[in-house]
Design a protein that fits this description.
Blueprint: H1 9-16, H2 20-27, H3 40-50, E1 59-62, H4 70-76, E2 81-85, H5 88-97, E3 102-105, E4 117-121, H6 134-144, E5 145-156, H7 164-182, H8 196-206, E6 209-215, E7 220-226
Parallel strand pairs: 1-2, 1-4, 2-3, 4-5
Antiparallel strand pairs: 5-7, 6-7
Helix pairs in contact: 1-2, 3-4, 6-8
Protein backbone atom coordinates (compact mmCIF):
# COMPACT_ATOMS: atom_id res chain seq x y z
CA UNK A 1 0.00 0.00 0.00
CA UNK A 2 1.18 3.61 -0.81
CA UNK A 3 4.29 2.32 -2.62
CA UNK A 4 5.85 -1.07 -3.42
CA UNK A 5 8.08 -0.66 -0.35
CA UNK A 6 5.23 0.42 1.94
CA UNK A 7 2.98 -1.65 4.22
CA UNK A 8 0.15 -3.76 2.86
CA UNK A 9 -3.46 -3.15 3.83
CA UNK A 10 -3.30 -6.22 6.07
CA UNK A 11 -0.21 -4.87 7.85
CA UNK A 12 -1.93 -1.53 8.43
CA UNK A 13 -4.99 -3.28 9.85
CA UNK A 14 -2.85 -5.28 12.27
CA UNK A 15 -1.10 -2.08 13.33
CA UNK A 16 -4.42 -0.27 13.83
CA UNK A 17 -5.62 -3.03 16.17
CA UNK A 18 -2.45 -2.85 18.28
CA UNK A 19 -1.36 -0.41 20.97
CA UNK A 20 0.35 2.76 19.79
CA UNK A 21 3.75 1.44 20.88
CA UNK A 22 3.40 -2.04 19.36
CA UNK A 23 1.72 -0.65 16.27
CA UNK A 24 4.72 1.54 15.52
CA UNK A 25 7.11 -1.29 16.30
CA UNK A 26 5.36 -3.25 13.55
CA UNK A 27 5.25 -0.35 11.10
CA UNK A 28 8.80 0.89 11.71
CA UNK A 29 10.63 -0.94 8.87
CA UNK A 30 8.23 0.50 6.27
CA UNK A 31 7.21 3.77 7.92
CA UNK A 32 9.35 5.99 5.70
CA UNK A 33 7.49 4.65 2.66
CA UNK A 34 4.11 5.90 3.90
CA UNK A 35 2.43 9.35 3.75
CA UNK A 36 2.65 9.46 7.56
CA UNK A 37 6.30 10.51 7.43
CA UNK A 38 6.72 14.29 7.51
CA UNK A 39 7.43 15.46 3.94
CA UNK A 40 10.97 16.60 3.23
CA UNK A 41 9.61 19.93 1.99
CA UNK A 42 8.15 20.59 5.44
CA UNK A 43 11.40 19.61 7.15
CA UNK A 44 13.39 21.90 4.86
CA UNK A 45 10.98 24.79 5.46
CA UNK A 46 11.33 24.30 9.21
CA UNK A 47 15.12 24.33 8.95
CA UNK A 48 15.03 27.59 7.00
CA UNK A 49 12.64 29.22 9.46
CA UNK A 50 14.82 28.29 12.45
CA UNK A 51 18.19 29.02 10.88
CA UNK A 52 18.20 32.66 11.91
CA UNK A 53 17.15 32.01 15.51
CA UNK A 54 20.30 30.25 16.73
CA UNK A 55 22.98 29.44 17.39
CA UNK A 56 21.87 26.17 18.92
CA UNK A 57 24.29 23.84 20.68
CA UNK A 58 22.17 20.78 21.33
CA UNK A 59 18.84 19.57 19.95
CA UNK A 60 16.07 17.18 21.00
CA UNK A 61 13.57 15.50 18.67
CA UNK A 62 10.52 14.55 20.74
CA UNK A 63 8.70 11.47 19.40
CA UNK A 64 11.44 11.16 16.81
CA UNK A 65 10.07 8.05 15.12
CA UNK A 66 12.43 6.91 12.38
CA UNK A 67 14.34 10.19 12.65
CA UNK A 68 12.83 12.62 10.13
CA UNK A 69 13.41 15.56 12.45
CA UNK A 70 16.98 14.56 13.23
CA UNK A 71 18.07 15.99 9.91
CA UNK A 72 16.62 19.37 10.92
CA UNK A 73 18.50 19.29 14.21
CA UNK A 74 21.69 18.10 12.56
CA UNK A 75 21.65 21.13 10.26
CA UNK A 76 21.09 23.57 13.13
CA UNK A 77 22.80 22.20 16.25
CA UNK A 78 26.56 22.37 16.73
CA UNK A 79 27.17 20.00 19.63
CA UNK A 80 24.93 17.00 19.18
CA UNK A 81 21.38 15.80 18.78
CA UNK A 82 19.14 13.41 20.69
CA UNK A 83 15.96 11.63 19.65
CA UNK A 84 13.41 10.24 22.09
CA UNK A 85 10.57 7.82 21.33
CA UNK A 86 8.83 4.96 23.12
CA UNK A 87 8.78 2.59 20.15
CA UNK A 88 11.91 0.45 20.10
CA UNK A 89 11.23 -0.42 16.48
CA UNK A 90 11.16 3.22 15.39
CA UNK A 91 14.28 3.95 17.42
CA UNK A 92 16.08 1.08 15.71
CA UNK A 93 15.38 2.63 12.32
CA UNK A 94 16.46 6.06 13.56
CA UNK A 95 19.74 4.72 14.95
CA UNK A 96 20.53 3.15 11.59
CA UNK A 97 19.81 6.39 9.75
CA UNK A 98 21.66 8.67 12.20
CA UNK A 99 24.48 6.66 13.79
CA UNK A 100 26.18 9.75 15.24
CA UNK A 101 23.12 10.92 17.16
CA UNK A 102 21.99 9.80 20.62
CA UNK A 103 18.65 8.06 21.17
CA UNK A 104 16.63 7.43 24.33
CA UNK A 105 13.59 5.20 24.74
CA UNK A 106 11.08 7.00 26.95
CA UNK A 107 7.46 8.11 27.16
CA UNK A 108 7.18 11.72 26.01
CA UNK A 109 4.74 12.37 28.86
CA UNK A 110 7.60 11.74 31.30
CA UNK A 111 10.75 12.97 29.59
CA UNK A 112 13.97 12.16 31.52
CA UNK A 113 15.82 15.39 30.70
CA UNK A 114 16.70 18.50 32.68
CA UNK A 115 17.85 21.77 31.07
CA UNK A 116 20.08 20.04 28.53
CA UNK A 117 18.89 21.39 25.17
CA UNK A 118 18.71 24.64 23.26
CA UNK A 119 16.20 23.47 20.66
CA UNK A 120 13.41 20.90 20.73
CA UNK A 121 11.33 19.90 17.73
CA UNK A 122 8.48 17.49 17.13
CA UNK A 123 6.83 16.50 13.86
CA UNK A 124 3.39 14.96 13.47
CA UNK A 125 3.20 13.67 17.02
CA UNK A 126 0.67 15.87 18.83
CA UNK A 127 -2.23 13.76 17.61
CA UNK A 128 -0.96 10.90 19.77
CA UNK A 129 -1.71 12.90 22.92
CA UNK A 130 -5.18 13.51 24.30
CA UNK A 131 -5.87 17.13 25.28
CA UNK A 132 -5.51 16.29 28.97
CA UNK A 133 -2.05 14.82 28.27
CA UNK A 134 -0.62 17.91 26.57
CA UNK A 135 0.36 19.67 29.83
CA UNK A 136 2.59 16.73 30.84
CA UNK A 137 4.18 16.70 27.38
CA UNK A 138 4.84 20.44 27.35
CA UNK A 139 6.06 20.51 30.94
CA UNK A 140 8.59 17.80 30.14
CA UNK A 141 9.87 19.69 27.12
CA UNK A 142 10.04 22.90 29.15
CA UNK A 143 12.22 21.14 31.74
CA UNK A 144 14.42 19.69 29.01
CA UNK A 145 15.25 23.12 27.57
CA UNK A 146 17.84 25.54 28.84
CA UNK A 147 16.63 29.06 29.71
CA UNK A 148 15.90 30.80 26.41
CA UNK A 149 15.56 27.49 24.57
CA UNK A 150 13.02 26.94 21.82
CA UNK A 151 10.36 24.35 21.08
CA UNK A 152 9.29 24.38 17.42
CA UNK A 153 6.80 22.34 15.40
CA UNK A 154 4.73 22.80 12.23
CA UNK A 155 0.97 23.15 12.58
CA UNK A 156 -1.65 23.22 9.84
CA UNK A 157 -4.76 25.33 9.76
CA UNK A 158 -8.10 23.54 10.16
CA UNK A 159 -9.24 22.72 6.59
CA UNK A 160 -12.49 24.34 5.41
CA UNK A 161 -15.65 22.30 5.70
CA UNK A 162 -15.98 22.17 1.90
CA UNK A 163 -12.58 20.49 1.47
CA UNK A 164 -11.75 16.82 1.05
CA UNK A 165 -9.20 17.17 3.87
CA UNK A 166 -11.92 18.25 6.32
CA UNK A 167 -14.04 15.18 5.68
CA UNK A 168 -11.04 12.84 5.51
CA UNK A 169 -9.68 13.93 8.91
CA UNK A 170 -13.17 13.97 10.43
CA UNK A 171 -13.85 10.46 9.15
CA UNK A 172 -10.47 9.21 10.36
CA UNK A 173 -11.02 10.61 13.87
CA UNK A 174 -14.54 9.22 14.09
CA UNK A 175 -13.38 5.79 12.95
CA UNK A 176 -10.64 5.75 15.60
CA UNK A 177 -13.08 6.83 18.32
CA UNK A 178 -15.35 3.93 17.41
CA UNK A 179 -12.36 1.58 17.32
CA UNK A 180 -11.18 2.75 20.75
CA UNK A 181 -14.67 2.42 22.20
CA UNK A 182 -14.89 -1.28 21.32
CA UNK A 183 -11.27 -2.47 21.22
CA UNK A 184 -8.40 -2.51 23.70
CA UNK A 185 -5.68 -1.41 23.91
CA UNK A 186 -6.54 2.00 22.45
CA UNK A 187 -4.68 3.51 19.51
CA UNK A 188 -4.57 7.26 20.03
CA UNK A 189 -4.04 9.30 16.87
CA UNK A 190 -6.47 12.14 16.24
CA UNK A 191 -6.14 14.94 13.71
CA UNK A 192 -8.74 17.29 15.19
CA UNK A 193 -7.93 17.44 18.91
CA UNK A 194 -5.09 19.97 18.76
CA UNK A 195 -6.40 23.33 17.60
CA UNK A 196 -3.88 26.17 17.50
CA UNK A 197 -5.84 28.07 20.14
CA UNK A 198 -5.81 25.14 22.57
CA UNK A 199 -2.17 24.27 21.96
CA UNK A 200 -1.09 27.90 22.42
CA UNK A 201 -3.07 28.09 25.65
CA UNK A 202 -1.35 25.00 27.06
CA UNK A 203 2.09 26.19 25.97
CA UNK A 204 1.52 29.59 27.59
CA UNK A 205 0.27 27.95 30.79
CA UNK A 206 3.49 25.92 30.88
CA UNK A 207 5.58 29.11 30.79
CA UNK A 208 6.43 29.41 27.09
CA UNK A 209 6.16 32.60 25.05
CA UNK A 210 4.47 31.57 21.82
CA UNK A 211 4.50 32.97 18.30
CA UNK A 212 4.05 31.56 14.80
CA UNK A 213 5.72 32.15 11.44
CA UNK A 214 4.28 31.06 8.08
CA UNK A 215 5.69 28.05 6.31
CA UNK A 216 5.44 26.69 2.81
CA UNK A 217 3.14 25.06 1.75
CA UNK A 218 0.44 27.70 2.44
CA UNK A 219 -1.83 26.88 5.35
CA UNK A 220 1.04 25.79 7.63
CA UNK A 221 2.76 27.75 10.37
CA UNK A 222 5.77 27.01 12.50
CA UNK A 223 4.91 27.29 16.18
CA UNK A 224 7.88 28.73 18.08
CA UNK A 225 7.66 28.55 21.88
CA UNK A 226 10.49 30.11 23.86
CA UNK A 227 11.32 29.16 27.45
Amino acid sequence: MFSPQGPSLRELCVQALSSVEHGYDLLAPKFDHTPFRTPQSMLDATTRALSGLGPFRTGLDVCCGTGAGMGVLGALCQDGTTGVDFSSGMLGQARSAYPNASFVRADARALPFDAGFDLAVTFGALGHFLPEERPALFNGIYRALRPGGLLAFPAGSRPPVTSIAHWATLGFDLALRVRNAVWRPPFVMYYRTNTMQEVSRDLTATGFTVRTVPLSPPGYNLVIARK
